[in-house]
Amino acid sequence: MLFYTVMKPVVRLGLRVFFRRLEVRHRARLRLPGPLMLCGNHPNTLMDPLVTAVQRHEPIAFLAKSTFFKNPILGAIMRSGNCIPIYRRQDAVGGPDATSARQLAASNEASFGRCYDYLERGGTVMIFPEGTSVSERRLRPLKTGAARIALGTEARHDFKLGLKLVCVGTNYFDPTRFRSDVLLNVAPPIVVADYAARYRENPEAAADELTEEIRRRLTRRLVISRAAEDDALAQQVERTFGDHLNPDDDPSTLYDNFELSRTLLDAVAWFEQHDAGRLAALRGALTTYLAELQHHKVDDEALDQTRRPSTGLPDYLSLILGFPVWLYGLLTNYIPYKIPSQVARRATKETEFIAAIMLGVGMITFPLAYAVEAAAVQHFLTHDWRLTLLFVLSLPLAGFYALGYWQTLSARLRRLRVRQLPLAVRAGLRARRAAVLGMLDEARAEYLSRML
Fold first, then answer.
1. From residue 242, how far is each of 208, 235, 261, 265, 302 by CA, in Å?
2. I want to staple 353 with a disulfide (CB 3.0 to 4.6 A). Which of 25, 226, 348, 362 is the partner?
């Protein structure tokens, strides 16, 4: 518990740096008094419990698959981080034979007992009922373990404990990219005692019904794709023409982006069923347009004449004057910035692990790099701890400035590249863009008219 308490503010700071925005919809539901059980989807392995845990003042116990505990170092970290192992049939050594099944059942009963004790003391337990982590925007079939723990805890107190179950939909908008966004969409609490009569009649049926209610509540708070190709198309449309499709987007919330993602996926599914030809034509036109943009090393934003930034002297002057600060931020932050992504890409090919590895490595590389730089500055330059402290404080500020400066400069370079293209190429790209936008507008009008 001490490790959990010490690391929580460190993780909170790490998440604030890693994500551009971490928004919680209905945050108060995550801060209900215990006993409380949290159930969430599981697209991003170790990142999922972290983004939820930092939202709640009280500590949370997490159920995690037993394979994490087999490594001595990782296992020690998991136990110190308030994690309880859960044993899955597919993880059994020697295969799922009868002996293994009995051993798994006994191990899980012990883990369930720890959950009962934790909840009975008014604590909070989080479980991911899918039982596995896959990065696709889907909700896989739910295991009944969460429902059985919740019902079993209440049954031990004749359904008078007051346990509530809250479903948390975690939506990552670009799960492997640094400075991306994540939305926690929190459902109203389920009062577990409402299932008392059904449990007394048939415990297994009660667990199935509660699991189905968990599934319904998570489904309503997630972006869920039906097929990989549908998801790819929806994300291409959203990332390329999101501002066009959602011109009234409220910049103060991610919920508009969430609604747009759900609407796009619903529209793709509808057109597959009712007008597959139009969908195929749109898919082909968009694929061709994006391929041409990539070939010429430009993007849609650079080509869009309606989104030109200011080109006045003050704007260029800010880039010129900001260059030394960018260079300072680059030199002092580049190595700790690059190492996490390089380590993550080489450590795993599984997308759902990349963000967690980047976060963990970054929480080591940045403090270590800053410490080395501070020591060097103190020893060779300042010889004054106050000046060295000012230097250390400048490092993260310069790093964020350098990142923003480079994004602005890159956008301007892409626009310059567009202007350098032959006139016929520019005209062709803009004609393809207009054609795709026309197809999107027609499809949107058709879809909305049918939905009214």
1. 39, 9, 9, 13, 15
2. 348
Rounded alpha-carbon distances, angstroms, from residue 99 to 7, 93, 109, 113, 335? 39, 11, 15, 21, 51
Among residues 418, 142, 208, the alpha carbon closest in space to that of 300 is found at 418
Bridging pattern class, strands 60-65 and 83-86: parallel
Regarding pTM above 0.85, the answer is yes
Residue 92 — pLDDT band, cuts 50, 70, 90?
Answer: low
Tokens at 116, concatenated: 């009962």
Q: Domain 2-219: give its CATH architecture.
A: 3-Layer(aba) Sandwich (3.40)
Closest to 43 (Cα-Cα) out of 184, 152, 178, 148: 184
Collapsing DSSP to helix, strand or coil, 430 comes out as helix
pLDDT of residue 108: 78
| Interhelix angle 228-245/423-451, nearest 10 degrees | 100
Whether the link from the prior residue into 35 is cis, omega within 30° of 0, is: yes
Of 140, 215, 137, nearest to 173 by C-alpha is: 137
Look at residue 393 and give its three-state secondary structure. helix
H or E stretch including 82?
none
The count of other CB atoms within 10 Å of the CB of residue 17 is: 17
Out of 110-124, 159-173, 275-289, 376-390, which region has the weakest mean confidence (pLDDT)? 110-124
Most confident of 127-141, 339-353, 362-376: 362-376
- Write out pLDDT tens, residues 408-429: 999 989 999 999 999 999 999 9
DSSP type of residue 65: E
CA 49/CA 61 separation, integer angstroms: 10
Strand duo 190-191 + 180-186: pairing: unpaired
Query: What does the longest C-alpha to C-alpha distance in the chain come to?
Result: 77
pLDDT tens across 164-214, in order? Answer: 999 999 999 998 889 999 999 999 999 999 999 999 999 999 999 999 999
Q: Please give the span between the terminal C-alpha atoms of the chain, in angstroms, as a whole number.
A: 53
What does the CA dihedral 230, 236, 241, 243 come to, rounded to 10 degrees?
Answer: 90
